[in-house]
Protein backbone atom coordinates (compact mmCIF):
# COMPACT_ATOMS: atom_id res chain seq x y z
CA UNK A 1 0.00 0.00 0.00
CA UNK A 2 1.28 3.46 -0.85
CA UNK A 3 1.74 6.33 1.60
CA UNK A 4 -0.83 8.72 0.10
CA UNK A 5 -3.88 9.80 2.05
CA UNK A 6 -6.04 6.89 3.18
CA UNK A 7 -9.74 7.56 2.76
CA UNK A 8 -12.18 5.83 5.08
CA UNK A 9 -15.77 5.62 3.89
CA UNK A 10 -17.41 5.24 7.28
CA UNK A 11 -20.62 3.50 8.21
CA UNK A 12 -21.84 2.87 11.74
CA UNK A 13 -19.97 1.47 14.71
CA UNK A 14 -16.61 2.26 16.26
CA UNK A 15 -14.33 0.56 13.73
CA UNK A 16 -14.02 3.64 11.44
CA UNK A 17 -12.69 5.72 14.34
CA UNK A 18 -10.42 2.89 15.51
CA UNK A 19 -9.01 2.56 12.02
CA UNK A 20 -8.51 6.31 11.64
CA UNK A 21 -6.63 6.46 14.96
CA UNK A 22 -4.43 3.51 14.05
CA UNK A 23 -3.53 4.97 10.65
CA UNK A 24 -2.95 8.48 12.02
CA UNK A 25 -0.61 7.03 14.65
CA UNK A 26 1.67 5.81 11.86
CA UNK A 27 1.93 9.35 10.50
CA UNK A 28 -0.05 8.62 7.36
CA UNK A 29 -2.66 11.24 6.40
CA UNK A 30 -6.25 10.08 6.76
CA UNK A 31 -9.60 11.48 5.63
CA UNK A 32 -12.92 10.09 6.87
CA UNK A 33 -16.01 10.39 4.70
CA UNK A 34 -18.93 9.76 7.07
CA UNK A 35 -22.15 8.41 5.56
CA UNK A 36 -25.05 10.48 6.83
CA UNK A 37 -27.57 8.54 8.88
CA UNK A 38 -25.08 5.71 9.44
CA UNK A 39 -21.73 6.96 10.75
CA UNK A 40 -21.11 8.34 14.23
CA UNK A 41 -19.64 11.68 13.25
CA UNK A 42 -18.70 12.54 16.83
CA UNK A 43 -16.37 9.53 16.94
CA UNK A 44 -14.40 10.74 13.90
CA UNK A 45 -14.47 14.45 14.72
CA UNK A 46 -10.81 14.40 15.78
CA UNK A 47 -9.71 13.51 12.24
CA UNK A 48 -10.00 15.35 8.92
CA UNK A 49 -13.48 14.40 7.80
CA UNK A 50 -16.52 15.24 5.75
CA UNK A 51 -19.93 13.73 5.20
CA UNK A 52 -22.18 12.66 2.37
CA UNK A 53 -25.60 11.16 1.94
CA UNK A 54 -25.60 7.83 0.13
CA UNK A 55 -26.95 9.22 -3.14
CA UNK A 56 -24.58 12.20 -3.33
CA UNK A 57 -21.75 10.31 -5.00
CA UNK A 58 -20.42 13.30 -6.92
CA UNK A 59 -20.01 15.30 -3.72
CA UNK A 60 -18.33 12.37 -1.99
CA UNK A 61 -15.84 11.70 -4.80
CA UNK A 62 -15.02 15.41 -4.96
CA UNK A 63 -14.23 15.46 -1.22
CA UNK A 64 -12.00 12.39 -1.50
CA UNK A 65 -10.05 13.85 -4.38
CA UNK A 66 -9.78 17.28 -2.75
CA UNK A 67 -8.07 15.65 0.23
CA UNK A 68 -5.62 13.71 -1.94
CA UNK A 69 -7.08 10.29 -1.22
CA UNK A 70 -5.33 7.51 -3.13
CA UNK A 71 -6.43 4.46 -1.17
CA UNK A 72 -9.85 3.62 0.25
CA UNK A 73 -11.30 1.42 2.96
CA UNK A 74 -15.05 0.81 3.26
CA UNK A 75 -15.91 0.01 6.87
CA UNK A 76 -18.83 0.17 9.28
CA UNK A 77 -22.45 -0.90 9.18
CA UNK A 78 -24.76 0.52 6.54
CA UNK A 79 -28.43 -0.32 6.27
CA UNK A 80 -29.16 -0.73 2.59
CA UNK A 81 -31.60 1.93 1.37
CA UNK A 82 -34.42 1.50 -1.10
CA UNK A 83 -33.39 2.65 -4.57
CA UNK A 84 -36.61 4.67 -4.65
CA UNK A 85 -35.41 6.81 -1.71
CA UNK A 86 -31.77 7.13 -2.78
CA UNK A 87 -32.22 10.35 -4.81
CA UNK A 88 -28.83 10.12 -6.58
CA UNK A 89 -27.06 13.19 -7.87
CA UNK A 90 -25.77 13.19 -11.46
CA UNK A 91 -22.60 11.29 -10.53
CA UNK A 92 -24.63 8.88 -8.42
CA UNK A 93 -26.95 8.18 -11.34
CA UNK A 94 -23.93 7.55 -13.56
CA UNK A 95 -22.46 5.17 -10.99
CA UNK A 96 -25.75 3.30 -10.65
CA UNK A 97 -25.83 2.87 -14.40
CA UNK A 98 -22.33 1.40 -14.32
CA UNK A 99 -23.26 -0.92 -11.47
CA UNK A 100 -26.20 -2.12 -13.53
CA UNK A 101 -28.08 -5.21 -12.43
CA UNK A 102 -25.85 -5.62 -9.34
CA UNK A 103 -27.84 -2.76 -7.77
CA UNK A 104 -30.73 -5.20 -7.50
CA UNK A 105 -28.63 -8.14 -6.28
CA UNK A 106 -27.72 -9.10 -2.73
CA UNK A 107 -25.41 -7.01 -0.57
CA UNK A 108 -22.21 -8.79 -1.61
CA UNK A 109 -22.96 -8.48 -5.31
CA UNK A 110 -23.71 -4.79 -4.88
CA UNK A 111 -20.59 -4.13 -2.79
CA UNK A 112 -18.38 -5.99 -5.25
CA UNK A 113 -19.75 -3.77 -8.02
CA UNK A 114 -19.17 -0.63 -5.93
CA UNK A 115 -15.56 -1.68 -5.26
CA UNK A 116 -15.05 -2.27 -8.99
CA UNK A 117 -16.42 1.17 -9.91
CA UNK A 118 -14.30 2.91 -7.24
CA UNK A 119 -11.21 1.27 -8.67
CA UNK A 120 -12.24 2.35 -12.15
CA UNK A 121 -12.38 5.88 -10.70
CA UNK A 122 -8.70 5.57 -9.81
CA UNK A 123 -8.82 4.56 -6.13
CA UNK A 124 -7.15 1.52 -4.65
CA UNK A 125 -9.63 -0.27 -2.38
CA UNK A 126 -8.38 -2.33 0.57
CA UNK A 127 -10.01 -4.48 3.21
CA UNK A 128 -9.88 -3.05 6.72
CA UNK A 129 -8.11 -6.22 7.86
CA UNK A 130 -5.24 -5.43 5.46
CA UNK A 131 -4.77 -1.98 6.98
CA UNK A 132 -5.28 -2.63 10.69
CA UNK A 133 -3.86 -5.79 12.23
CA UNK A 134 -5.65 -7.82 14.89
CA UNK A 135 -9.21 -7.17 13.72
CA UNK A 136 -10.09 -10.68 12.57
CA UNK A 137 -10.82 -13.67 14.79
CA UNK A 138 -7.94 -16.14 15.22
CA UNK A 139 -8.67 -19.83 14.81
CA UNK A 140 -9.53 -21.84 17.92
CA UNK A 141 -11.69 -21.91 21.02
CA UNK A 142 -11.51 -18.35 22.35
CA UNK A 143 -13.37 -18.83 25.64
CA UNK A 144 -12.93 -21.00 28.71
CA UNK A 145 -15.98 -23.00 27.68
CA UNK A 146 -15.66 -25.25 24.62
CA UNK A 147 -18.46 -26.64 22.44
CA UNK A 148 -19.95 -30.00 23.39
CA UNK A 149 -20.41 -32.77 20.79
CA UNK A 150 -24.05 -31.64 20.48
CA UNK A 151 -22.89 -28.07 19.90
CA UNK A 152 -20.42 -29.28 17.26
CA UNK A 153 -23.26 -30.96 15.36
CA UNK A 154 -25.21 -27.68 15.40
CA UNK A 155 -22.11 -25.79 14.23
CA UNK A 156 -21.71 -28.11 11.24
CA UNK A 157 -25.39 -27.77 10.41
CA UNK A 158 -25.24 -24.00 10.73
CA UNK A 159 -22.11 -23.72 8.59
CA UNK A 160 -23.80 -25.70 5.81
CA UNK A 161 -26.97 -23.58 5.94
CA UNK A 162 -24.89 -20.38 6.01
CA UNK A 163 -23.07 -21.50 2.88
CA UNK A 164 -26.38 -21.96 1.07
CA UNK A 165 -27.57 -18.54 2.28
CA UNK A 166 -24.33 -17.03 1.05
CA UNK A 167 -24.59 -18.66 -2.36
CA UNK A 168 -27.92 -16.88 -2.73
CA UNK A 169 -26.31 -13.63 -1.42
CA UNK A 170 -28.91 -13.39 1.36
CA UNK A 171 -27.17 -13.35 4.75
CA UNK A 172 -24.18 -14.44 6.81
CA UNK A 173 -25.71 -15.92 9.96
CA UNK A 174 -28.02 -18.69 11.16
CA UNK A 175 -29.22 -19.98 14.54
CA UNK A 176 -29.42 -23.75 14.98
CA UNK A 177 -30.62 -25.71 18.03
CA UNK A 178 -30.57 -29.50 18.19
CA UNK A 179 -30.32 -29.63 14.42
CA UNK A 180 -33.30 -27.33 13.90
CA UNK A 181 -32.81 -24.04 12.06
CA UNK A 182 -34.51 -21.47 14.31
CA UNK A 183 -33.78 -18.52 12.06
CA UNK A 184 -31.66 -17.21 9.21
CA UNK A 185 -30.30 -13.71 8.71
CA UNK A 186 -31.63 -11.56 5.90
CA UNK A 187 -31.82 -7.77 5.70
CA UNK A 188 -32.69 -7.38 9.41
CA UNK A 189 -29.15 -8.18 10.61
CA UNK A 190 -27.76 -10.41 13.34
CA UNK A 191 -29.11 -8.51 16.35
CA UNK A 192 -32.68 -8.76 15.07
CA UNK A 193 -32.16 -12.42 14.15
CA UNK A 194 -31.14 -13.21 17.73
CA UNK A 195 -34.06 -11.27 19.17
CA UNK A 196 -36.45 -13.18 16.93
CA UNK A 197 -34.96 -16.55 17.83
CA UNK A 198 -35.31 -15.89 21.57
CA UNK A 199 -38.99 -16.77 21.29
CA UNK A 200 -38.35 -19.85 19.16
CA UNK A 201 -35.92 -21.68 21.43
CA UNK A 202 -36.75 -25.31 22.26
CA UNK A 203 -36.31 -27.02 25.62
CA UNK A 204 -33.00 -28.78 26.14
CA UNK A 205 -29.44 -27.82 25.17
CA UNK A 206 -29.11 -24.30 23.87
CA UNK A 207 -28.47 -23.51 20.23
CA UNK A 208 -25.61 -21.91 18.35
CA UNK A 209 -25.22 -18.72 16.31
CA UNK A 210 -23.05 -19.44 13.27
CA UNK A 211 -21.59 -16.62 11.15
CA UNK A 212 -19.44 -17.05 8.07
CA UNK A 213 -18.46 -15.16 4.95
CA UNK A 214 -20.37 -15.85 1.77
CA UNK A 215 -18.79 -18.05 -0.92
CA UNK A 216 -16.89 -15.71 -3.21
CA UNK A 217 -17.28 -12.90 -0.64
CA UNK A 218 -15.80 -9.53 -1.58
CA UNK A 219 -13.32 -9.53 1.31
CA UNK A 220 -12.71 -5.78 1.08
CA UNK A 221 -16.24 -4.96 2.26
CA UNK A 222 -18.93 -6.31 4.57
CA UNK A 223 -17.04 -9.09 6.35
CA UNK A 224 -19.06 -10.82 9.08
CA UNK A 225 -18.65 -8.94 12.37
CA UNK A 226 -19.37 -9.77 16.00
CA UNK A 227 -18.94 -7.86 19.23
CA UNK A 228 -20.18 -7.54 22.79
CA UNK A 229 -23.69 -6.76 21.56
CA UNK A 230 -23.72 -10.04 19.62
CA UNK A 231 -22.77 -11.95 22.76
CA UNK A 232 -25.48 -10.18 24.75
CA UNK A 233 -28.05 -11.06 22.12
CA UNK A 234 -26.97 -14.70 22.01
CA UNK A 235 -27.18 -14.95 25.80
CA UNK A 236 -30.62 -13.32 25.85
CA UNK A 237 -31.77 -15.84 23.22
CA UNK A 238 -30.66 -18.70 25.47
CA UNK A 239 -27.95 -19.93 23.13
CA UNK A 240 -24.99 -22.03 24.21
CA UNK A 241 -22.47 -20.22 22.10
CA UNK A 242 -21.24 -18.61 18.89
CA UNK A 243 -19.20 -20.09 16.04
CA UNK A 244 -17.54 -17.77 13.52
CA UNK A 245 -15.24 -18.11 10.55
CA UNK A 246 -11.60 -17.73 11.52
CA UNK A 247 -9.61 -14.93 9.84
CA UNK A 248 -12.71 -13.81 7.91
CA UNK A 249 -14.81 -12.44 10.77
CA UNK A 250 -14.11 -9.03 12.28
CA UNK A 251 -13.86 -8.76 16.08
CA UNK A 252 -13.05 -5.10 16.70
CA UNK A 253 -13.70 -5.54 20.45
CA UNK A 254 -11.89 -8.87 20.70
CA UNK A 255 -10.92 -8.87 24.38
CA UNK A 256 -14.24 -7.37 25.53
CA UNK A 257 -16.20 -9.81 23.37
CA UNK A 258 -14.37 -12.82 24.79
CA UNK A 259 -14.78 -11.48 28.33
CA UNK A 260 -18.51 -10.98 27.74
CA UNK A 261 -18.89 -14.56 26.49
CA UNK A 262 -16.98 -15.94 29.48
CA UNK A 263 -19.07 -13.87 31.90
CA UNK A 264 -22.26 -15.32 30.42
CA UNK A 265 -21.02 -18.90 30.19
CA UNK A 266 -21.10 -18.98 26.38
CA UNK A 267 -18.51 -20.57 24.15
CA UNK A 268 -16.94 -18.61 21.30
CA UNK A 269 -15.09 -20.58 18.67
CA UNK A 270 -13.48 -19.58 15.35
CA UNK A 271 -13.21 -22.26 12.68
CA UNK A 272 -11.93 -22.58 9.13
CA UNK A 273 -15.13 -23.81 7.57
CA UNK A 274 -14.93 -26.11 4.55
CA UNK A 275 -16.39 -24.70 1.31
Task: Please specify the SSE layout and strand pairing.
Blueprint: E1 5-10, H1 15-25, E2 30-35, E3 49-52, H2 57-66, E4 69-75, H3 90-99, H4 107-120, E5 124-126, H5 128-131, E6 140-141, H6 149-167, E7 173-177, E8 180-184, H7 190-197, E9 208-211, H8 228-236, E10 241-245, H9 254-263, E11 267-271
Parallel strand pairs: 1-2, 1-4, 2-3, 4-5, 9-10, 10-11
Antiparallel strand pairs: 6-11, 7-8, 7-9
Helix pairs in contact: 7-8, 8-9
What does this structure look like?
This protein is α/β, with parallel strands linked by helices and 275 residues long. It contains nine helices and eleven strands. The chain has helices at 15-25, 57-66, 90-99, 107-120, 128-131, 149-167, 190-197, 228-236, 254-263, and strands at 5-10, 30-35, 49-52, 69-75, 124-126, 140-141, 173-177, 180-184, 208-211, 241-245, 267-271. Helix 8 (228-236) runs parallel beside helix 9 (254-263). The model has no long low-confidence stretch (mean pLDDT 88).
**What's the architecture of the largest domain in CATH terms?**
3-Layer(aba) Sandwich
Total tally of structural domains: 2
CATH topology of the largest domain: Cytidine Deaminase, domain 2
Counted beta strands: 11
Radius of gyration: 19 Å
CATH class value of the largest domain: Alpha Beta
Largest sheet, in brief, is: 6 strands, mixed
- In percent, how helical is the residue content? 25-40%
Strand content: 15-25%
The strand line-up of the biggest sheet is: 6-11-10-9-7-8
Distance between the termini: 30 Å
- Quick check: average pLDDT? 88
What oligomeric state is this? single chain
Overall geometry: globular
Structural class: alpha/beta
Q: Count helical runs.
A: 9
**Unreliable segments of 5+ consecutive residues:** none
* CATH superfamily heading of the largest domain: LpxI C-terminal catalytic domain
Amino acid sequence: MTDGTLGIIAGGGQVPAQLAAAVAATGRPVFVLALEGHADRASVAAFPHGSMRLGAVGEGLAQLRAHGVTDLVLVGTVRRPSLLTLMPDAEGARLLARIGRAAFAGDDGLLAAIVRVLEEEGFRVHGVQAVMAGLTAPEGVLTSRAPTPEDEADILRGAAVCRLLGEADVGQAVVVQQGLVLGVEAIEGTDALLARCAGLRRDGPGGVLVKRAKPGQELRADLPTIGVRTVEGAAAAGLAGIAIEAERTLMPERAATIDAANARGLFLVARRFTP
